UniProtKB/TrEMBL annotation:
<comment type="similarity">
    <text>Belongs to the ABC transporter superfamily. Macrolide exporter (TC 3.A.1.122) family.</text>
</comment>
<dbReference type="GO" id="GO:0089705">
    <property type="term" value="P:protein localization to outer membrane"/>
</dbReference>
<dbReference type="InterPro" id="IPR003593">
    <property type="entry name" value="AAA+_ATPase"/>
</dbReference>
<keyword id="KW-0472">Membrane</keyword>
<keyword id="KW-0449">Lipoprotein</keyword>
<dbReference type="GO" id="GO:0005524">
    <property type="term" value="F:ATP binding"/>
</dbReference>
<protein>
    <submittedName>
        <fullName>Lipoprotein-releasing system ATP-binding protein</fullName>
    </submittedName>
</protein>
<dbReference type="InterPro" id="IPR017911">
    <property type="entry name" value="MacB-like_ATP-bd"/>
</dbReference>
<dbReference type="GO" id="GO:0022857">
    <property type="term" value="F:transmembrane transporter activity"/>
</dbReference>
<dbReference type="GO" id="GO:0005886">
    <property type="term" value="C:plasma membrane"/>
</dbReference>
<dbReference type="InterPro" id="IPR015854">
    <property type="entry name" value="ABC_transpr_LolD-like"/>
</dbReference>
<dbReference type="InterPro" id="IPR003439">
    <property type="entry name" value="ABC_transporter-like_ATP-bd"/>
</dbReference>
<keyword id="KW-1003">Cell membrane</keyword>
<feature type="domain" description="ABC transporter">
    <location>
        <begin position="6"/>
        <end position="230"/>
    </location>
</feature>
<keyword id="KW-0547">Nucleotide-binding</keyword>
<dbReference type="InterPro" id="IPR027417">
    <property type="entry name" value="P-loop_NTPase"/>
</dbReference>
<keyword id="KW-0067">ATP-binding</keyword>
Length: 230
């Protein structure tokens, strides 16, 4: 079995630490995700799924515990090293696409590649490749306002994968889409996961989508229940 791309070990996190109004969000949460594995994260509102995703993606730090990405304990690394790993190895997708409105679909996908030092030609080629993979290659030169909600979210997926990360983190990525569009977008995402060997942790309230992933983790009371599986 492949080594996990992401491993969380006994993660604890609270806010207003030591304050009478302290809110404990995570209490020893642990998980592992292997290459090519799509894992659903389900949780009641306010249970801490966004905090868990932010810690997994090195946007936040735990009070205690270990965050391993590609064999490195990132909780012990400098901010500079964490930023470098986040940019190279982690892709994020949110419920709302956050595309830059003044740029075309292709340009939105090329931008993170240019920031990482790719040439314009290589960045454009990669963007076209990804857009074709999710079925909207013909929309490459359209700005977000000219795209449907489902098309915009597929562009957001492509942008997240532009620099070939090893880990994809998605927070309700189809939550603002109608059921039919949600299904189309999710199918495109799963195709990318399978074909690229990504490890994906996807938060969703949609039980049908969760059931189509490899495993379902439930976050409640600050802990992860890993006994629920497809």
């Amino acid at each position: 079995m492949s080594d996990p791309v992401l491993a969380l070990r006994d993660i604890a996190k609270s806010y207003n630490h030591g304050n009478p109004n302290e809110v404990v969000v995570l209490r020893g949460a642990s998980l592992e995700i292997a290459p090519g594995e799509a894992v659903a994260l389900v949780a009641p509102s306010g249970a801490g799924k966004s905090t868990l995703l932010h810690i997994s993606g090195l946007l936040d730090t735990p009070d205690n515990g270990e965050v391993w990405i590609s064999g490195q304990d990132m909780a012990r690394q400098s901010d500079r090293r964490r930023t470098a790993v986040r940019c190279a190895d982690v892709g994020f997708v949110y419920q709302f696409h956050h595309l830059l409105p003044e740029f075309t679909a292709l340009e939105n996908i090329a931008l993170p590649q240019l920031a990482a030092g790719q040439t314009s030609a290589a960045a454009e080629a990669r963007a076209r490749e990804l857009l074709e993979a999710v079925g909207i290659g013909a929309r490459a030169d359209h700005r977000p306002a000219a795209l449907s909600g489902g098309e915009q979210q597929r562009v957001a997926f492509c942008r997240a994968l532009a620099n070939r990360p090893r880990l994809l983190l998605a927070d309700e990525p189809t939550g603002n889409l109608d059921p039919e569009t949600s299904d189309t977008v999710f199918a495109a995402l799963m195709t990318l996961v399978r074909e690229t060997g990504l490890a994906a942790l996807i938060a969703t309230h949609n039980p049908d989508l969760a059931a189509r992933m490899d495993r379902v983790l439930r976050l409640e009371g600050g802990r992860l229940d890993q006994t629920v599986s497809r």
